[in-house]
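Lab manual, section 2.4: Encoding a predicted structure.

Procedure: take the sequence of the chain (67 residues), apply the prediction step described in section 2.3, and record the output as structure tokens. A sample record is shown.
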Amino acid sequence: MMDRLRQAADQTRSAVSAPTKWVSMYGDFITKNAGAVGQVEGALRSLTYIIPGMDRSCGEDKIAGGC
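Recorded output:
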């Protein structure tokens, strides 16, 4: 019974410390890949501008290139 409690405590400590590691890894990734991240952000910005207006102008045909 005590082994299971110790094991659960160890797993809990590991799970609680993981987000801190993820934030650090995320920051490192963004810093090292700034150009690629900028391109992805630009593409997403364009899509969020284009996609919402599609249904108003010509529906799903625009997605398929028929508009």
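Check your result against the sample. Helices lie at 2-32, 34-50, 54-57.
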